[in-house]
Specification:
This protein has three helices and two strands, in the order αααββ. It has 98 residues and is mostly helical.
Length: 98
């Protein structure tokens, strides 16, 4: 059974804080959700196929081919700075200690 202590414990684990009104509200909502799940667990689904998609539409995939025809050297002509065949960018992390 869901009670306020359990909701408070889970909230603490998730680093959440609730006032008393919200704690009462969430405890009630979670209890209703658990009750609904219990009711659904009682439904006989023996001959029901699992539903993986709600739509019967089939996805059309394109062929997985590589249209890249530009060489690395040609692409690197467009960059302001390069080093050893790679694009050189300013450092954003500093390893110096303060």
């Amino acid at each position: 059974m869901i009670d306020k202590n359990l909701v408070q414990h889970v909230a603490h684990l998730a680093k959440l804080e609730f006032n008393e009104a919200d704690l009462e509200k969430f405890t009630q909502q979670l209890a209703e959700i658990i009750q609904m799940e219990d009711e659904l667990a009682q439904v006989d689904t023996t001959n029901v196929k699992p539903t993986t998609h709600i739509s019967r539409q089939k996805t059309t995939f394109r062929a997985d081919d590589n249209p890249l025809t530009t060489s690395r050297d040609e692409l690197l002509k467009n960059v302001p700075e390069q080093e050893d065949g790679l694009i050189k960018v300013p450092a954003i992390l500093d390893n110096e200690e303060e």
